[in-house]
Membrane protein YqjE (Usitatibacter rugosus), 117 residues
Amino acid sequence: MADVRGVAADALRIVRTRLELLSIEFQEEKERIVRQMLVASAALFFAVFGVMLALVWLVLALPEEYRQSALGVLCLLFLAGAGGCWFSLSRKRTRIPFASTLGTLARDEAALKGGDD
């Protein structure tokens, strides 16, 4: 009976350790995502106002007969940029969330299967 309790206690410790690892990875992933969202929001804010001011300056610097054509070209450039961003966002992620936890669990499984041989 003592051996069964010992094995159960060891199994419980292993599960607890794996859950702690998962919890740590989840917190790190959450912090990384929040940080990236804040930086991306700030970058977007500054980029939008910078580009808008640059476009106003560019259009006003051109002679009046070229202003309409310049706005059309700029519109096409922005639409092409939006398409490139959409393509970039639609690609698959290369980083797998919780990779450490999954790797540890896979090693645990392999160790347990190897112990049965």
Q: What stands out?
A: Residues 2-114 form one domain. The CA atoms of residues 60 and 67 lie 8 Å apart.
